[in-house]
Amino acid sequence: MNINTLSINKQCWDEVAHRFYGRNPLPEYGPFAPREDDLNLLGDVTNLKVLEIGCGSGHSLKYMEQEHAAELWGLDLSSKQLEAARDLLSDSAKPVQLFESPMEDDPGLPADYFDMVYSIFALGWTTNLDQTIKNVHRYLKKGGSFIFSWEHPLYSRVKNENNTLTFNKSYHEEGPYNHEGWSHTAIMQQLKVSTYINTLVNNGFKVERVVEEVVTTELDVEKHSNRWYSYEKVQFLPTTLIIKSTKLSD
Question: pTM score, two decimals?
């Protein structure tokens, strides 16, 4: 775990939390990505105990409440994000437990407890994917699901200049990088699709489904006009990687 990176990212998220209030929560998985309504990756969450990694402002947990999950748990690095989540979920009729913690750390969550762990556009912030996945494995019951979405590893490696796509970084190169789409200093992890899949497999998960499709509704095109995720670029590249996996054993 890189303490310096976590400190930088925590400061960044505390400063920008208001800009990302309610951004792309469930049933969305990411910009220009298929929605849960179409994918049905979660299934029926009625009476399930769910945990969100990188819960942000709490809007995806609110969605889980509306879908009748039994318990709502979340962790996030940012105290500002958690303030927003606590306020949003303050009137919840379901038990809510929120923890301020990096995803690489276990803040004392119960083992073999959750029916589902999920993460919406947050996993790429980890400084240690292997340790994060180990934590998720420990939290889940046998047969429990882990579902996550993140920016597709190809997307930031390709630039669109004058309607010409060019690679600005090798796909083979992995590790920390400063994301040019951010106005604040923030350090994310550049990983390959195979790294995500193999890390899951090596830690006792079965990969059930991988989604890379792009959906371009009129609303999406308008919402993302002149932004990092552009309609022109997504004609050639996926914005979002979504993976569903299942815990095989204890």
Answer: 0.94
Tokens matching residue 167: 């690679």
80 forms beta bridges with none
- Between CA 126 and CA 136 the distance in angstroms is 13
Collapsed DSSP state (helix, strand, coil) of residue 241: strand
Per-residue buried b or exposed e for 167-180, using 16+ beta carbons within 10 Å of the residue's own CB: eeeeeeeeeeeeee
Residue 160: per-residue pLDDT: 85
Give tens-digit pLDDT for 11-65.
888 888 788 887 889 999 999 999 999 999 999 999 999 999 999 999 999 999 9
| CB 97, CB 31: distance < 8 Å | no
Residue 247's nearest CA partner among 178, 177, 200, 188 is: 200
Give the residue carrying structure tokens 């990969």. 207
Contacts of 226 by beta carbon, 8 Å cutoff, 6+ apart: none
Of the candidates 90, 85, 102, 94, which has an alpha carbon nearest to the alpha carbon of residue 49? 94
Q: What is the pLDDT of residues 116-166, one digit of tens each?
A: 999 999 999 999 999 999 999 999 999 999 999 999 999 989 988 888 899
Cis peptide before 27 (omega within 30 of 0): yes
The domains found in the chain, sorted by start residue, are: 3-247 (3.40.50.150)
Burial class (CB in 10 A: 0-12, 13-18, 19+), 3: exposed
Residue type at position 49: K
